[in-house]
Amino acid sequence: MNASERPDHSPPLGSETRVVAFEIKHTQIIDHHGAPLGPLPEFAKDPAELIKLYRAMVLTRLFDNKAIALQRTGKMGTYASSNGQEGVAVGMGSAMQPCDVFAPVYREYGTQFMRGVAMHEILLYWGGDERGMNYAQQRQDFPISVPIASQIPHAVGAAFAMKLRKEPRVSVGVLGDGASSKGDFYESLNIAGAWQLPVVIVIVNNQWAISLPRHEQSFAATLAQKGIAAGVPCEQVDGNDVIAMRYIMERALERARNGGGPTLIEALTYRMSDHTTADDASRYRPPAELEGQRQFDPIMRLKNYLTHNADWDDAKEQALQAECSAEIESEVKLYLDTPPMPPESMFDHLYETLPAIYKEQRDEVMQLGATGGGEDHV
Amino acid sequence: MNASERPDHSPPLGSETRVVAFEIKHTQIIDHHGAPLGPLPEFAKDPAELIKLYRAMVLTRLFDNKAIALQRTGKMGTYASSNGQEGVAVGMGSAMQPCDVFAPVYREYGTQFMRGVAMHEILLYWGGDERGMNYAQQRQDFPISVPIASQIPHAVGAAFAMKLRKEPRVSVGVLGDGASSKGDFYESLNIAGAWQLPVVIVIVNNQWAISLPRHEQSFAATLAQKGIAAGVPCEQVDGNDVIAMRYIMERALERARNGGGPTLIEALTYRMSDHTTADDASRYRPPAELEGQRQFDPIMRLKNYLTHNADWDDAKEQALQAECSAEIESEVKLYLDTPPMPPESMFDHLYETLPAIYKEQRDEVMQLGATGGGEDHV
Amino acid sequence: MSEITMVEAINLALARALEEDQNVVVFGEDVGANGGVFRVTAGLQKRFGGERVLDAPLAETAIAGMAVGMATQGIRPIIEIQFMGFIYSAVDQIINHASRMRNRTRSRLTCPMVLRTPHGGGIHAPEHHCESTESMFAHMPGLRVVIPSSPQRAYGLLLAAIRDPDPVIFLEPSRLYRLMKEEVIDNGEALPLDVCFQLRDGKDVTLVTWGAMIHETMQAADQLASEGISAEVIDVATLKPLDMETILTSVAKTGRCVIVHEAARTCAIGSEIAAQLAERGLMSLFAPVQRVTGYDTIMPLFRLEKQYIPSTARIMAAVKKTQEVS
Amino acid sequence: MSEITMVEAINLALARALEEDQNVVVFGEDVGANGGVFRVTAGLQKRFGGERVLDAPLAETAIAGMAVGMATQGIRPIIEIQFMGFIYSAVDQIINHASRMRNRTRSRLTCPMVLRTPHGGGIHAPEHHCESTESMFAHMPGLRVVIPSSPQRAYGLLLAAIRDPDPVIFLEPSRLYRLMKEEVIDNGEALPLDVCFQLRDGKDVTLVTWGAMIHETMQAADQLASEGISAEVIDVATLKPLDMETILTSVAKTGRCVIVHEAARTCAIGSEIAAQLAERGLMSLFAPVQRVTGYDTIMPLFRLEKQYIPSTARIMAAVKKTQEVS
Ligand SMILES: Cc1ncc(C[n+]2csc(CCOP(=O)(O)OP(=O)(O)O)c2C)c(N)n1
Ligand SMILES: Cc1ncc(C[n+]2csc(CCOP(=O)(O)OP(=O)(O)O)c2C)c(N)n1
Ligand SMILES: [Mg+2]
Ligand SMILES: [Mg+2]
Questions:
Q1: pLDDT, position D326
Q2: For position D284, what pLDDT does the model report?
Q3: Considering only alpha carbons, which residue of chain A is nearest residue C295?
Q4: In Å, how far is D23's CA from the nearest CA of chain B?
Q5: Closest residue in B to C58 (Cα–Cα)
Q6: How far apart are CA C196 and CA C185, in angstroms?
Q7: Do D89 and B182 touch (CB under 8 A)?
Q8: C186 in contact with chain A, both atoms CB, cutoff 8 A
């Protein structure tokens, strides 16, 4: 960076008072009844394109229902639902290119499916099987990241790789409103700014971090403004408006792809579900709040728009639902039919080559077999 | 916090665009020639008060010179100089009350001396002796913190204690420009905001973090604006203007003391020295930069003001220097005369009561005595 | 008094501590209205108020660091890290500050804080929710590390940890949270923080373990008894400082020792116990010490956790090995 | 070729790695123009450019986390943590991600990164600058931990670490950085990452150590020789995975073993070695294994570091104890 690009606007010592000013913009394109608030972005003028987005959201929602059912019937472990947040996920997924890299948390199924991650892979993961994160497609994408915010440095590191190799690719990192309180996020956003890396970071503000409401998470008026701390362009978008989400996301991706550096986006949405299947939101969340949020559902919103502007009707809806359900069923079958991993495989991805000293342990596991030596575990 | 106080200005989903705006102000009260830029704060109208500030800065500078000499002559270990930053330290120290709590880094000797920490304690610490952090005065203040930024959560925790006990006290945490990139700082600033704790956090922006210049540390235009990320009031001050520093600091302390919550202050100054006595700044810092900064020296600035406005003259200056030097010499003597700790004392502050299992180790150390069993160490 | 689970016993100890000392403060993620993801802190916020039982923003470094700051100022913070897999962000504050504050200031400032977190696997939880990395803390001077193995011991050890003047890492075996019930008398009596518990008398072999592995170990002892092998069972519980005297005394009697832990094998607390047995108990050992441990591999996702966690059968097999030589 | 210090040898290895693989990137605090606070990276930024040798903002969590991200995408990051006392902020990324990325994704994404950091005391440095907490990493599955003890071994081991497909914690004993010079041939040859070095042949006792303690241990071996005791010296160097075979073979020959390390005694790598000797080498031991280690206390500030770090005299005394019994 040469002197003229220096971001340090500190006045030279001894000068007079001066002011740096910032503002945060919020973008929404169709209102929650599905009515456009102004001109549409190009892509949204093509009904077929919007139906693709709609289908991706519906598929994600139906997948979600199914996954919860699998958990409830003992066929899967704890699962984190993305119900209500499909607009954000599909907006991101539709804006990204296959060559980009995605670093998700655990509620971005919509994005992952659009990128080619298979449903049965996600099910395998929540089913307690590491193979679920061995995506057959998008092999550069990151696995689901449970330690909150720890994936943001990964996304920024991936962006570094792209910049070093001068590739026209962008890395996308996602985190929650809760995660936006964590040091990993600030530190790596700051470096993304300092090094002007091609990364887009999206805060999915679903208003809750398990039981902590957004307003107790931070005294900041918006979460978007956290970008100011890093000198990174930042803005807020209505994440339940999939058109706005995709639009803002595309703009940020383009800037990054063209060497314009990072962007921080706060996508406003709402977690309609419990935190996970292990959670009971009724302990901490007023039922009225949830009910009040239903009117902002991203799927209903786009459906309303399509009904009024693209001849969407019940028949089409039913066909779509049937098609999605069938796709899901076949993926569920793939999941349920996956033969178990041999126990000794727990050693097979520890190092590229298993050091000799651990062979004995691997042999023991193999020999003890499926029961681990006994049926007596809790 | 009740609903009306909620900091979350996110528009309800489905509303139109709205904007949140911020600005960062910079304050300077006397220019670098010592000429007032406008009306002075009350305290600055009393020359005796300003002479106190002047004395504190001179004492700190002379101490610094002496400490470096001790290190150079093998009488002390690595030392971090505060040369050039006395305005910030004395501004903070003069604004704080004895009941407040101070969490320093390692360049706030000026503040510490004003609070009653003894010079020989600081020397003992850099002399490799833990007793240096057992301040005889200000027993609640924190020790020097070497792991960068890790003291900020401590300052915020101390503020929590004050708020819980409803005490009219304030906690002050200090960090460097480099430290402002670290997660500890952001995380605890965010909590200070969320919980509206009585804490003032001061970023001492001395333009360098060892060899990394400020503009490579962050793309943010000011470091003050990091407060925006936490919804915490933030501003910039000319830290080489001790009057401005004290003024801004007093205002922030008062707000905190009156239940108004935290403030983040960025104090602009310059590290005139090497990073520590183990560093050689000529490897990375253009000599012209250092020379250019000399005109902004905080001590010279106040001296000029006093010369023009308070009959300060050479005789007074010489008397002051002599007085400070004598004070320093007697503290150095105290330091050099401090008898060594017995080796086994390394076990005496491990736990309140040494667990039986470690008694054998303590006995061994005691028995091996001063040489640790041999003269053969490197 | 009825029998209660470990979750309830810990809740009882927390409530008593909050009751008896105004300086006790509980905070962490979701410990308030939600009562903690395991319901350990259920009802505490309601009873003691939001000023003393607080939900923290999602920031483990700051949570630990603030606890350090509070503790130096006379508060007795009890923090909850939601799962042990999320303790690593707090490690810097634990090692560089909590464990050293007393030493760094020659006891001017001290750090009486408790860090509670669920420990170990076996509950079919997601990734990073099943850690048993107590060994890294047991290596660190200035800390205490405690793992209870029953409701009653959880109650007494937690009270001791809260009242202790130094920092304590209190690891709660999540597999035991609701596994068994026990009568717990809420009399405020703390248990000592530096003595192992002898859970069972025996003469042929000493089984040394802690936390959830007490379960399989006691089962093994039962089965061994039916085969005529009498096993003494020691619950180390207070892992740092380590009470080797109790273990050495037992092994001096039995001449054989099997150490059982869920953590990975290498460089763990089991290594230390085995090393000390070899150093100080070599002459009383009739057979090499056996270690039955988690494997030196990443804790697998839940489909294979059963194969990772030591089974009763593995413990029995190890005991039999010690009986072969004699 | 002239003799060089360990600092120069490491610099040479870094330069060669940067030269031979375009994907190698070096970053950390002050590694650029300043060449690192110990001058280990001196000249590299000038030679290889600011795109591949970068000064990072002050943020250890992000530095480690970004290295993970880069490594998964084909970069070979070598990061420097300025002192080991500042590694703790990186522990979450090291344990939860670097060591597990391969396992979590079934080898789809891997993490070939090297984390370099100065290790140990003895240089009169300030607080937190003298850590030797290698044991906490040695407990963690999926990591490699390496500590060189001479310029030549530093060169060969670092090259091996950089080329290794998995994450390596590379600890550089700062006390040795400039203590000795050695001829180092810059031929790009790596040393194996899973075999101990036998530095000295002997028959009466095996001295097992690593890092800076090699210095005092070799001195002790010299003095012992003059007293007629022949000591074999093993430099473990590659601490995880641990090559026990070499150690066991040696002890089978000498029948006696003294383990020397600077780290605190409890629950350390020394414990593991002693435990395995007891398990697998019990029958060849003529005397209990001795451990000469740093004490279980906070590393003191420098006035007392000499009393903390094991001295030659302490090593000699331990060897003598092993000779008493026979
Ligand atoms: C570092 C860390 N701390 C705690 C947790 C436990 N935890 C899982 S999800 C969660 C809340 C996350 O909230 P947010 O970032 O808003 O994401 P959301 O779940 O709402 O999508 C917490 C505390 C964790 N996974 N990682
Ligand atoms: C966590 C941590 N990382 C690295 C270091 C090494 N180090 C000591 S001072 C320093 C630079 C600090 O810069 P800044 O915060 O600007 O403070 P200054 O020294 O300029 O006062 C670094 C990197 C440290 N002490 N702690
Ligand atoms: Mg959320
Ligand atoms: Mg600085």
A1: 53
A2: 87
A3: A361
A4: 23
A5: B187
A6: 21
A7: yes
A8: no
CB proximity list for C157: less than 8 A, separation 6 or greater:
C146, C148, C170, C190, C191, C193, C237, C238
Query: Which of C236, C92, C71, C48 is closest to C164 using CA atoms?
Result: C71
Report the CATH number of the D3-183 domain: 3.40.50.970
Q: What's the rounded Cα separation, in Å, for the pair C98 and C102?
A: 8
- Rounded to an integer, what distance in angstroms lies between the CA atom of residue B71 and that of residue B77? 6
- Looking at domain C197-323, its CATH class is alpha beta
Give me the residue from B13, B24, B215 closest to A6, CB to CB. Answer: B215
Neighbours of D, requiring at least 3 CB pairs below 8 Å, are A, B, C
Query: What's phi and psi for B235, nearest 5 deg?
Result: -155, 165
Number of H helices and number of E strands within chain A? 12, 9
pLDDT tens digits for range D202-235 = 999 999 999 999 999 999 999 999 999 999 999 9
Please tell me the pTM assigned to this model.
Answer: 0.97
d(C-alpha B279, C-alpha D287), whole Å: 49
The finding on whether A206 has its CB within 6 A of some atom of ligand 1 is: yes
Q: Please tell me which of the candidates B216, B284, B343 has its beta carbon nearest to residue D304.
A: B343
Q: Which residue of D has its CA nearest to A171?
A: D69
Q: Tokens representing B242?
A: 């001790």
C29 in ligand 1 pocket by Cβ < 6 Å? yes
Give the A window 339-368 contacts with B, CB below 8 Å: none
Distance from C-alpha of D145 to C-alpha of D114, rounded to nearest angstrom: 10
Residues surrounding ion ligand 3 at CB below 5 Å: A 176-177, 206, 209
CA angle centred on A370, ends A369 and A375, rounded to 5°: 110
Predicted pLDDT at A370: 80
CB < 8 Å to A270, chain B: 13
- Per-residue pLDDT, A16: 45
- Is the predicted pLDDT of residue A229 greater than 70, yes or no? yes
Evaluate if residue D37 carries a pLDDT over 80.
yes
pLDDT tens sequence across A14-49: 444 756 999 999 999 999 999 999 899 999 999 999
DSSP strand pairing (D144-146 vs D238-240): antiparallel
- A chain contacts of residue D96, beta-carbon cutoff 8 Å: 147, 150
Task: Give ranges for CATH 3.40.50.970 in chain C.
Answer: 3-183
Confidence band for B1, pLDDT divided at 50, 70 and 90: very low
Q: Give the integer Cα–Cα distance in Å for B326 and B323.
A: 5
Determine the atom of ligand 2 nearest the C-alpha atom of D89: 1
Which residues are paired to A30 by β-bridges?
A: A36
Residue C129 annotated to the active site = yes
Distance from CA of A149 to the nearest CA of D (A): 10
Amino acid B371: pLDDT: 74
Model confidence at A7, pLDDT cuts 50, 70, 90, reads low
D127-185: per-residue pLDDT in tens?
Answer: 999 999 999 999 999 999 999 999 999 999 999 999 999 999 999 999 999 999 999 99
* Beta-carbon separation of A371 and C124 below 8 A: no
Residues in chain D within 8 Å Cβ distance of A133: 104-106, 108
Query: Distance between CA atoms of B145 and B235, rounded to whole angstroms?
Result: 24
Work out the minimum CA distance from D304 to partner chain B, whole angstroms. Answer: 6
Span from the CA of A179 to the centroid of ligand 1 (angstroms):
6
Quote ipTM for the complex.
Answer: 0.97
Write down the catalytic residue from C97, C129, C215, C261.
C129
Q: Answer whether residue B7 shows pLDDT above 70.
A: no
**CA distance linking residue D309 with residue D321, whole number of Å:** 20
DSSP string, C213-261: HHHHHHHHHHHHHHTT--EEEEE--EEETT-HHHHHHHHHHHS-EEEEE
Q: What percent of chain B has pLDDT over 90?
A: 92
Residues in contact with D116: Cβ distance below 8 Å, sequence separation at least 6, in sequence order: D10, D28, D40, D78, D79, D80, D81, D158, D170, D171, D172
The Cα D81–Cα D91 span in angstroms is: 12
